[in-house]
């Protein structure tokens, strides 16, 4: 039996809709919208680069018109409805999903990476005892370290930084608060006021979680997109679960015209509903946006190969140090390299590059309107 055919525009718009980028207020408004957005997307990546507003705030602003940075702080530190942990990178995740990460925490605790080879069990127990006694601390609160030479640009002269990171990776510590990008750690169970920690999801349940997360935030999924940045054995298990859903009829194999070499699936209930149509909404997206971060998928769907050029030598950059893809409707129309001049309260356009044949007065006006809104958010005006 031949597969159901979808067009690339249909699939692209379905993905945009699933990402919350086809409506003005897909997650509502106010502080609660932040939690809804993170829950729906599955994760919001955190990044320290602040040439413009940091990626986690940018991602939420792209989907929540009245988003304020304080909303994220409230969710993490007061309501405790989100927490930080590793997805494909460090990210904000809904606390409801904590159980799906416990196996990873246990694995990292039992087998820390080579980066932490100098850290002993005694070191970690010592920092946990300090936090239990003193309350939440940041690395700045540690004043009795014997300083060592940094072994990496992102490292620290304070050995306690690795102790805190080990405790975090192993699930004993949680980042209770961020002051800028400074992390404040607390005991996980104390932070969430848990008498008993949630039961870890089984490996099978974790696989199902990955599939559900992808279907919710992508609409049309592939094995690569559902198992993004996971290792081969886990990826194989996810494929088994996908195939099981196909047999049950809840998941349907589809073929996208122009992408015939790739296997895709869609939820049966989505296929039975009316396909969304593209509109002319304009989005200036972070390079770490969940729509953009899976570069191969973004290239396949939008015919634009986005490169993150911050780590590329200046003479080899095509679009600029911190280039942001711009979407109008269901098309990638431009790439803009932006920089915030905080001293003079200006958002600077370093470079504006049009893609394909999208250069037009109408498109320029739409982008400039969105740039003005983005500037107000950037500068807090």
What does this structure look like?
The radius of gyration is 22 Å and the shape is globular. The protein has helices at 8-18, 31-41, 55-61, 69-78, 102-110, 121-134, 160-169, 188-191, 203-218, 223-226, 232-248, 268-272, 295-302, 361-379, and strands at residues 4-6, 44-45, 82-86, 90-94, 173-179, 182-187, 220-221, 251-256, 264-267, 282-284, 323-328, 331-341, 346-354. Helix content is 38%, strand content 18%. By secondary structure, it is an alpha+beta fold. The strands form four sheets. It has a four-stranded mixed sheet. Strands 10-11-12-13 form a four-stranded antiparallel sheet, covered by helices on one side.
What's the layout of helices and strands?
Blueprint: E1 4-6, H1 8-18, H2 31-41, E2 44-45, H3 55-61, H4 69-78, E3 82-86, E4 90-94, H5 102-110, H6 121-134, H7 160-169, E5 173-179, E6 182-187, H8 188-191, H9 203-218, E7 220-221, H10 223-226, H11 232-248, E8 251-256, E9 264-267, H12 268-272, E10 282-284, H13 295-302, E11 323-328, E12 331-341, E13 346-354, H14 361-379
Parallel strand pairs: 1-8
Antiparallel strand pairs: 2-4, 3-4, 5-6, 7-9, 8-9, 10-11, 11-12, 12-13
Helix pairs in contact: 1-9, 2-4, 5-7, 6-7, 9-11
């Amino acid at each position: 039996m031949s597969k159901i055919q979808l067009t690339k525009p249909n699939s692209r718009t379905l993905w945009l809709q699933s990402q919350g980028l086809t409506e003005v207020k897909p997650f509502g408004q106010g502080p609660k919208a932040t939690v809804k957005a993170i829950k729906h997307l599955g994760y919001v990546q955190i990044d320290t680069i602040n040439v413009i507003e940091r990626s986690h705030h940018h991602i939420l602003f792209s989907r929540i018109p009245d988003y304020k940075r304080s909303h994220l702080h409230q969710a993490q530190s007061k309501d405790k409805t989100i927490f930080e942990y590793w997805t494909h990178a460090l990210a904000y995740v809904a606390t409801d999903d904590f159980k799906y990460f416990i196996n990873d925490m246990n694995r990292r605790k039992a087998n820390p990476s080579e980066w932490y080879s100098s850290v002993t069990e005694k070191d970690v127990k010592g920092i946990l005892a300090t936090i239990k006694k003193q309350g939440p601390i940041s690395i700045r609160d540690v004043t009795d370290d014997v300083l060592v030479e940094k072994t990496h640009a992102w490292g620290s002269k304070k050995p306690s930084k690795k102790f805190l990171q080990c405790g975090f990776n192993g699930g004993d510590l949680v980042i209770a608060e961020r002051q800028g990008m400074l992390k404040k750690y607390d005991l996980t169970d104390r932070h969430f006021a848990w008498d008993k920690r949630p039961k870890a999801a089984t490996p099978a349940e974790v696989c199902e979680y990955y599939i559900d997360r992808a279907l919710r935030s992508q609409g049309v999924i592939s094995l690569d997109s559902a198992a993004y940045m996971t290792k081969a054995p886990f990826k194989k298990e996810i494929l088994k679960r996908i195939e099981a859903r196909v047999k049950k009829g809840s998941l349907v194999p589809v073929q996208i015209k122009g992408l015939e070499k790739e296997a895709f699936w869609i939820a049966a209930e989505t296929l039975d509903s009316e396909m969304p149509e593209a509109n002319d909404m304009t989005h200036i997206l972070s390079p770490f946006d969940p729509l953009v971060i899976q570069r191969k998928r973004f290239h396949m769907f939008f015919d634009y190969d986005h490169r993150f050029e911050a780590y590329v030598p200046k003479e080899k950059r095509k679009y600029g140090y911190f280039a942001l893809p711009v979407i109008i409707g269901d098309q990638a129309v431009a790439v803009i390299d932006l920089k915030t001049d905080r001293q003079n309260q200006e958002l600077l356009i370093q470079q504006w590059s049009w893609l394909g044949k999208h250069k037009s007065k109408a498109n320029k006006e739409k982008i400039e309107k969105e740039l003005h809104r983005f500037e107000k958010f950037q500068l807090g005006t």
